[in-house]
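Running low. Any example?
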Amino acid sequence: MSGAAEADLELGIRVNIDATRQVLDILRRVNPGVRVVFTSTTAVYGPPPAPSFPLTEANSPAPSGSYGSQKVSGGLQDILEASVILNSAAANEPLSGQKSILPVSRDLSMWICSPRTVVENLIHARDIAAEKYGEGSRVVNLPGITVTIHEMLAALKAVGGQEVLDLVEDKRDAAIEKIVGSWPANYDTSKAKRLGFTDDGTLERTLQQYMDDYRDRKE
């Protein structure tokens, strides 16, 4: 809910900070010692020093918006943090037969990961022994891939055809573009690989998986 959090500060605080604290308070009372896997966002890092600069877990959070700041706060409560981003609505909505507004430049690069890989890696994070993280932080940047919007749309056409691609309408929004453009698009995920997290596949495979899952839900 990055856009909503930026548009409504109070809502973002209630969802990303207050709700997280309430969940942790309940867990502390009813199941002390339970492991919590907290999914954060690439927005916590803020703009990278250079577009191709690969961020690591050693980079300090420097969010440029309220959403990233709220997720940093929530992550500090949870101890374990993982930076993930799911595939864009610009792809999954057309594959579901819905029109989609593309509010950013087609040249924009993004760090994305398929839902299936995210779920698999979150389950893996739950089961990693604490000592395997070594000294220091248990923050992990999960594997993903860097793609441009151009590449996403090309993959969308390859998987769904021209009729699916035609459901995407370019309608740039300067506010959204500023938010998304501040998110890093390149990461060093060597720590994640050392810990046994799974690499993501191609963008075409991700979109095909979405189509298969959506078809299963319809049936």
